[in-house]
Specification:
By secondary structure, the chain is mainly α. 32% of the residues lie in helices and 0% in strands. The longest helix is centred in the middle third of the chain and has 10 residues. The structure holds iron/sulfur cluster (SF4). Its cofactor is [4Fe-4S] cluster.
Length: 78
């Protein structure tokens, strides 16, 4: 994930990935997401992060431990 600090929501204080930098969560196409997902698994902000990503229709990268495709699967069909 990536966002500037002026618009960061409250849960971002808990975000483990804030310490690693955005490139960690936007892996090169075809590379493994497992490291990012493992970090999310230890993150206290995970639930809020996932909720935020779904609410804001974030398309790219890992959010709340889920890949783009996994989040899409959670999304209700319009
Ligand atoms: S759940 Fe993952 S993507 Fe979300 S804030 Fe935590 S470490 Fe970052």
């Amino acid at each position: 994930m990536s966002m500037n600090t002026t618009s960061a929501p409250a849960w971002y204080d808990l975000a483990l990935c804030a310490q690693t930098g955005p490139s960690f969560f936007f892996p090169e196409p075809g590379s493994s997401l497992q490291d990012a997902k493992r970090l999310c698994g230890a993150c206290e902000g995970r639930a809020a992060c996932l909720e935020y990503a779904l609410a804001n229709d974030e398309r790219f990268g890992v959010w709340g431990g889920l890949s783009e495709a996994e989040r899409l699967a959670l999304r209700p069909r319009a």
